[in-house]
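hiii so my PI (J.) wants the whole complex modelled not just the main chain, which honestly fair. so below is everything: two entries, each one labled with what it is. i double checked the lines twice but i was tired so who knows lol
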Amino acid sequence: MRFTSEQRLDDGVIEREFTLGEIPGTLWTPGSAAPTPLILMAHNNGLPKAEPRLVARARYTAACGYAVATIDAAGCGVRPRSAADEQARADLRRAMQTGEPVDEIFESLVGPLVDKAAPEWRTTLDALLALPEIGGPVGYSGWTALGIRLAAVDPRIAAAGFFAGGYVPLAQREEARQVTIPLLLLLQWDDEGNPRQRALDLFDAFGSKEKTLHANLGGHLGTPWFEVEDGDRFFGRHLK
Amino acid sequence: MRFTSEQRLDDGVIEREFTLGEIPGTLWTPGSAAPTPLILMAHNNGLPKAEPRLVARARYTAACGYAVATIDAAGCGVRPRSAADEQARADLRRAMQTGEPVDEIFESLVGPLVDKAAPEWRTTLDALLALPEIGGPVGYSGWTALGIRLAAVDPRIAAAGFFAGGYVPLAQREEARQVTIPLLLLLQWDDEGNPRQRALDLFDAFGSKEKTLHANLGGHLGTPWFEVEDGDRFFGRHLK
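here's the output for the full assembly
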């Protein structure tokens, strides 16, 4: 893990860019010296790690006393996309505009993305936990499909907050039953791209004994800011 | 309004019993002198206002800086029950045990209870707002059916937190569309007595632009304590 830049933000949070092999990442840590819990923050596969809403969430969360890390995993963010991925994304956009069924296209795009991204997130987690300023435990926040895979296969993940969850590949819908850590599933009631009933079915499917659903009125981008604060309180109960 | 007893609790909260005509009530106020927002806290029609879980919620909420009031409205708690109500409650218990349909029995019991309780809650609100230690605005917390009626007809109610919402009389399911204040609907995912889909349909029906759903795994009595804290934060956004 090689740090390539560092800046100290107004609230004392330190924001560092890093690379780990081909993986570009960003790490936010609170100013304090003590080892802190870590939150892996991943968002929807199509967006870069520098996307402003993710950065705002990450900075807020770090200021609350967590190390927060994100990467552009293989095929995500600024990483090169395969011709097949580009084609699938174009097909998906067209199908969503015309109202055609999107399940198969979605599966062909996101299923392989999760398979490729998960090992890179775990490699990143190995490197992060070797840093003296990061202790544990580890939480996960964001992209539902990736988070299900990580929570199902990596026992270091102690609690997770997932967003949306309407379209989740078949493999992850199955893996959801193997997820037993405390969960907070956050969804938008009128999310254009995520069918509500599927998100509710997914919530039902998780194996966790302690799981909470939050839903707010509005579309995919309408999540109110207080949900970021609620997320911090959720992680506070399980990681601190 | 006549206060009949007063005690100061460990956290400075003052707990007073009162009567208002035939209505017995309890008022909790924080120790501070400044006029505070008010929360009307009503619970499910069958339970008395002295029920320990309600008292614990009320004391916590008062310590957060609110006046909190509850009453046993007509037919509720310790108030006399009509022979028809007693019969309906017996029928309801039997039907729930044997798995027979409960809709009609429920409607015949709870519909009239809401009709009788709502005016008493409004009379109580008049008297409470005349006290110098209570300012405003006013929130409502608890029993869904009564809260829908109050929020639909009384413009003084500025925000409301409802619990359960599976069985709500027909009249209130209609009135839900007229409710436009900020809402937090809290439900238990496996509530034995409140069908999940109906609670979700009710959430969908509310006219409010700002509404949030919280659901937790478990049965009717399994709500985790952090939801009381979340409720306080919800009211903090709208009443303070």
